[in-house]
Amino acid sequence: MEKTKEITLKQMQRKLWLLSVFKIPIIGFVKPKLLLLNEKESRVKIKLRRRTKNHLNSMYFGALAVGADVAAGLHVFYFSETMGHKVSFAFKGIKGEFIKRAESDVIFKIDQGELIREAILNSYATKERVNQSIDVVAIDANNELVANFVMIVSVKVK
After folding, report:
1. For residues 127 and 129, what is the distance between their CA atoms, to the nearest angstrom?
2. pLDDT, tens only, 18-71
3. Is 53 left (phi over 0), alpha (psi -120 to 50) or beta?
4. What is the pTM of this model?
C-alpha cells in the first residue's frame, strides 16, 4: 500500500482547477489559491472580493465554508495521488465557529494531514468507510483568527 509518488503544488493547483470546472463549480466561483500542501499541512487562500463579500463587506460565510472544505479535502486528493489509490470521499459534517468578521483575504490552515493519511490507510486495511474529524482555522490578513471549523471527512479506498 505504501507507494509514494511525488506531486507538486502546481499539479495539485491544476487538479483543484479541474475539480472546480468539471465537478464543483462553486469552488471555481470563489477561486481559492493553494499556497502550501505537504504530508502534514495545507494552506488555502481566498481573496475578499465582490464574489466572496456579503452586504457588510466581510467574507460571506459560504465562502468561508468553501475555504474550509478545500483545505481539508485537498489532503485526501494528495494522499490518493501519492499512494496511487482511488479514494472516494465526502464531508459527513461541518461545525463552524465564526469569531469575527473577515474583512480581508483569508488563509485556511490545516496541520493534521497525518490524520487523513491514517484514515485512508485504515480504510485500505479494513475495506470500510472511515470518518475522521479535521480542524481548520481561518486567519485574516492581520493574522487574527476569524473562524474555526471541524470538518468530518469520510473516506473509502476503492
Report:
1. 7
2. 888 899 999 999 999 999 999 999 999 999 999 999 999 999 999 999 999 999
3. beta
4. 0.91
Cell of 33: 489559491
Angle formed at CA 80 by CA 85 and CA 109, multiple of 5 degrees: 165
Query: What are φ and ψ of residue 8, in 5° steps?
Result: -90, 165
Rounded CA-CA distance 70/10 in Å is 16
Is-contact 47 105, C-beta < 8 A? yes
In angstroms, the CA 152 to CA 135 distance is: 9
Query: How long is the chain?
Result: 158
Q: Is the dihedral of CA 38, 45, 74, 69 positive or negative?
A: positive
Q: Which residues on adjacent β-strands are paired with residue 93?
A: 152
Q: Count the neighbouring beta carbons within 10 Å of the beta carbon of residue 156.
A: 18
CATH of 9-157, one of 3.40.50.2300, 3.10.129.10, 2.60.40.10, 3.10.20.90: 3.10.129.10
Segment 81-140, tens digit of pLDDT = 888 889 999 999 999 999 999 999 999 999 999 999 999 999 999 999 999 999 999 999
